[in-house]
Amino acid sequence: MRIGELGRVTGATPRALRHYEQAGLITSWRAANGYRVYDEGTVTRVRNIRHLLAAGLTLDDVRVFLPCLDGDMTAGPASARALGVARERLAVMDERIAAQLAVRARLAAALREAGAGAVRGAGAGAVGESLG
Description:
The protein is mostly helical and 132 residues long. It has six helices and two strands. A hairpin with a 5-residue loop joins strand 1 and strand 2.
């Protein structure tokens, strides 16, 4: 299948597919006309890659999962290395969230001090809620 069809079937853009290929996660061959051609098994691989990326992993992280990208990733137990990568990524996310919450708290405090009144925000813990 050509890149456009693979993209339609998996929801990935041609640009993303070329990026996955450049990263060594998928492979293609060139037809006589120079178009990239992928085999049918690439559909499962791309769907798994997209699933892992949507879970917050990076392309570098996804490389750890190469041995299981061509099948049902939920069928077997995760490897210790894969679990380690997922834990590391979660820790990075937790650090970023904590840093953003600290910045948010400083901004809310600055607005309170400036007399700006309640600040509206979405979700639990919004600044306006904390101001009473």
